[in-house]
Amino acid sequence: MAKHDPDLSALFHALSDPTRRAILSRLAEGPAAVTELAEPTGLRLPTVMRHLSVLEEAGLIATTKEGRVRSCAMVPEALAPMRTWLDEQRAIWEARLDRLDDYVTNLMKERAK
């Protein structure tokens, strides 16, 4: 049975929604107020707050509140576990494809004889 990392699952879950990905893309440019993040989505503020909550629980954003204004900032280092996992998967599949390529090349050589 495969070993599952709950932090990695939370990251993938947070990034599985296009609205949350759009919010992160915006936050990659710099911190923003929640109302600014909500504008382009066309969603009501409580719905945007739920999306922000998912991103915050995954560690992808940090929020602060000054007076009545809640601001969000991206935490780019939170993507590191995901990048590590993807790099591991890439290495596994590249090795498999290299072995397949060697097998097919040898098979073609055998048939050519």
From TrEMBL:
Residue ranges constituting the HTH arsR-type domain according to the UniProt record: 1-94
UniProt-listed SMART domains: HTH_ARSR
Pfam families membership: HTH_20
Database matches in InterPro entries: ArsR-like_HTH, HTH_ArsR_DNA-bd_dom, WH-like_DNA-bd_sf, WH_DNA-bd_sf
SUPFAM superfamilies: Winged helix' DNA-binding domain
Species assigned in the record: Albidovulum denitrificans
Name of the protein described by the UniProt record: ArsR family transcriptional regulator
Superkingdom, natural source: Bacteria
GO molecular function term, any single one: DNA-binding transcription factor activity
